[in-house]
Design a protein that fits this description.
It is built from 25 helices and 27 strands. The chain is an alpha+beta fold. The chain has 5 domains: about 5-60, Orthogonal Bundle (Helix Hairpins), CATH 1.10.287.610; about 85-320, 2-Layer Sandwich (D-amino Acid Aminotransferase, Chain A, domain 1), CATH 3.30.470.30; about 325-415, Nucleic acid-binding proteins (OB fold (Dihydrolipoamide Acetyltransferase, E2P), Beta Barrel); about 430-600, 5' to 3' exonuclease, C-terminal subdomain (DNA polymerase, domain 1, Orthogonal Bundle), CATH 1.10.150.20; about 610-690, BRCT domain (Rossmann fold). Strand 17 and strand 18 form a beta hairpin. The longest helix is centred in the first third of the chain and has 23 residues, at about 5-25. The radius of gyration is 29 Å and the shape is globular. The structure holds 2-(butylsulfanyl)adenosine. The site of 2-(butylsulfanyl)adenosine has 15 residues, from strand 3, strand 8 and strand 13.
Length: about 700
């Protein structure tokens, strides 16, 4: 039997872990570092392993997925899950038409005041009914045919945003929360990129991702899919004292109980408010982190909802007002191959122009050979093209029924491009790699162009004005071969180029000059070493302190760097083993590119080594990026939120809740001058600036 101490500890851990879950997955405001969360989680797991009798279905450890099922049991909905009428007119008139119908049904005269509406987003996911009894999640069911759905409780438990237990004292005996499970676009992209790298099947779109995960018989697979949830209504309710009398108050009450509710919602009077919401969201649709296919308008007062009732299976008090689709059908005119910075060959479908997601799309990526094979996309095919947000348009599926006959041959990248289309070098596809690559390195103009653009990028050497078109011209005319050539450009050479006025040539040269003073981390990143992104570059700079130390490091030395594994270490070794790359580096240094160096973290830890700082508000002179860069150079870490682990909070003008939190926790608060003083103490001793 577990002692009262153990019981209390288990309960406290569960509460705390779920509080952090909520902060992380629902509020998007992490409260503690991942390592701390993992520690709490492991402690709970260990206690539950020692005392299996304490294990309950609402324990956060049960979110990882249990044993696979043979089939989902059926669930009868006490209150049917209805659908809503769709307003087909995508223009503002749709909202007007809804308001007119509602007023007519309610027999309102023109002189009567406007009807109050709640407006929210129409999430493009999968409808779910969550049944809570006395606050405990007891069952989750799909909509099914509206009368009978399927019991998917096991899978729903793996969705971290869904509370296993509601928060509050006077919780209803029965509360069915209805809402949509969906996948955020960034989660979808990340999941697909991972699957693609592993040569595993990808998801067609976030909606299918959400639906497929929930209808997955093996909950351990469902647990690997990053899903989110928003509530939009209720099903059966029993014993809710002081139950709200409007839709908007209901959503607010659910939010109080810890249920995720989307903040993009309003209440407003009459059609005008609806039209404004519709247009506002339409303008921001691409910036939302998830897909929506429209907005939903609801009569806010429940008594009026009851009065309006239903027509067949649709309520008269709600309507979905759709936006133009983000997926469309078109035909593949051809498949081109583009060469990227690291020589990767990307097949791109040339399409019959099609209007999708608000723009006309003529090209869409096909990613790699595996993806083409899986989707079986052929020239002449009718395909579904998707463009959502700022993501590059993508061919998500081909429609084989519409394939021309006789069927065109399958596309094979190695057959089409036995040599690189840009430079004629051999193309190889290495064992275990999804991508085919050009072996030409910087001999290949495409790789050279991309490498130069990367080198000049904002987060690398930050050479403003050295963009796409200019780099293309310079490479084509043989004026730029390697990044080192950037520092040999002259006003005369630049002035001779197309569309290059003297003023912009002078500006570019000034930017080139400014870029000579940089940081070691930026320089390492700018080199474009395969598998070395910005974060790794920062880690390498901090660890080795100087470029020579990095260049001299062997595999063991590289593996000692945080987050550097064998693949990254191998890429770095290969890069520096190449005499040509060493030459470019020497030339860059010779041209005056310099940065401040140190002896590295091991030998002399920076003043801020091991310290965690949080920036809030705007500082008088430093940009956030600049402050972050300098803190990191001194060995410190910049975190997004304040916790007991925070060492300093640097507060500027209009600092918000982070400053309050810092005061509350007694964290040391600095202004910019204070930060600079700390950094000065760090940057002075033991460090020196090298000018090559
Ligand atoms: S209300 C009785 N609100 O769209 C009204 N539905 O046909 C019940 N949906 O299957 C639905 N976002 O899954 C409502 N904010 C929202 C919604 C929403 C997405 C889905 C829902 C339903 C379909 C409506």
């Amino acid at each position: 039997m577990a002692s009262p101490d153990v019981l209390a500890r288990v309960a406290a851990l569960r509460r705390e872990i779920e509080r952090h879950n909520h902060a992380y997955y629902v509020l998007d405001q992490p409260t503690i570092p991942d390592t701390e969360y993992d520690r709490l989680f492991r402690e709970l797991q260990a206690l539950e392993a020692d005392h299996p009798e304490l294990l309950t279905p609402d324990s956060p450890t049960q979110r990882v997925g249990g044993t696979p099922l043979d089939a989902f049991p059926k669930v009868r909905h006490v209150v049917p899950m209805l659908s809503i009428r769709t307003e087909t007119d995508t223009e503002a008139r749709g909202a007007q038409a809804f308001d007119t119908r509602v007023r007519k049904e309610l027999e309102l005269a023109e002189s009567d005041p406007p009807v109050e509406y709640a407006a929210e987003l129409k999430f493009d996911g999968f409808a779910i009914n969550l049944r809570y009894e006395h606050g405990l999640l007891v069952q989750a069911a799909t909509r099914g045919d509206g009368e009978t759905g399927e019991d998917v409780t096991q899978n729903i438990r793996t969705v971290h945003a869904i509370p296993l237990r509601l928060v509050g004292d006077a919780l209803p005996a029965v509360l069915e929360v209805r809402g949509e499970v969906f996948m955020r676009r960034d989660d979808f992209e990340r999941y697909n990129a991972r699957q693609r790298d592993a040569g595993k099947p990808t998801l067609v779109n976030p909606r299918n991702g959400a639906a497929g995960s929930i209808r997955q018989l093996d909950p351990r697979l469902a647990a690997q899919r990053p899903l989110s949830f928003f509530a939009y209504g209720l099903g059966e309710v029993q014993g809710w004292h002081g139950a709200p009398d409007t839709h908007s108050k209901t959503l607010a009450a659910l939010e109080q109980m810890g249920v995720p509710v989307c903040a993009e919602r309003i209440t407003g009077q009459g059609a005008a408010a609806l039209i404004q919401f519709h247009d506002d969201i339409a303008a921001r649709r691409d910036q939302l982190p998830f897909d929506i296919d429209g907005v939903v308008y609801k009569v806010n007062r429940f008594d009026l909802q009851r009065q309006l009732g239903f027509v067949t299976r649709e309520p008269r008090w709600a309507v979905a007002h759709k936006y133009p689709a983000q997926e469309a059908l078109t035909t593949v005119l051809g498949i081109d191959v583009q060469v990227g910075r690291t020589g990767k060959l990307t097949p791109v479908a040339r399409l019959a122009p099609v209007f999708v997601g608000g723009v006309t799309v003529t090209n869409a990526t096909l990613h790699n050979q595996d993806e083409i094979d899986r989707k079986d996309v052929r020239v002449g095919d009718t395909v579904i093209v998707r463009r959502a947000g700022d993501v590059i348009p993508e061919v998500v599926a081909s429609v084989p029924e519409r394939r021309p006959q006789p069927a065109p041959p399958r596309f094979d990248i190695l057959q089409t491009c036995p040599v690189c289309p840009e430079c004629g070098s051999h193309v190889v596809r290495l064992e275990g790699e999804a991508a085919a690559r050009c072996t030409g390195g910087l001999v290949c103009p495409a790789q050279r162009r991309q490498a130069l653009l990367h080198f000049a990028g904002r987060r690398a050497m930050d050479i403003e004005g050295l963009g796409d078109k200019l780099v293309e011209q310079l490479v084509e005319r043989g004026l730029l071969h390697t990044p080192a050539d950037v520092y040999g450009l002259s006003l005369d050479t630049l002035a001779g180029l197309d569309r290059m006025a003297e003023k912009s040539a002078a500006n570019l040269l000034a930017a080139v000059e400014t870029s000579k003073t940089t940081t070691l981390a930026r320089f390492i990143f700018a080199l474009g070493i395969r598998n070395v992104g910005e974060t790794t570059a920062k880690d390498l700079a901090r660890h080795f302190g100087s470029l020579d130390a990095l260049m001299a490091a062997d595999a063991a030395g590289l593996l000692a760097v945080r987050d550097v594994g064998p693949i990254v270490a191998e890429s770095i070794l290969q890069f520096f083993a190449e005499p040509h790359n060493r030459e470019v580096i020497a030339t860059l240094r010779g041209a005056g590119v310099h940065w401040s160096e140190s002896t590295g973290v091991q030998q002399s830890a920076g003043m801020l080594a091991g310290k965690t700082l949080v920036l809030t508000g705007s500082l008088p002179t430093l940009t956030r990026d600049a402050a972050k860069e300098r803190i990191e150079a001194a060995g410190g870490k910049v975190a997004g939120s304040v916790s007991k682990k925070t060492d300093y909070v640097v507060a500027g003008a209009e600092a918000g809740s982070k400053l309050d939190k810092a005061r509350e926790l007694g964290v040391v608060i600095l202004d910019e001058a204070g930060l600079l003083a700390l950094l000065a103490a760090d940057e002075a001793p033991g460090q020196f600036t090298l000018n090559f």
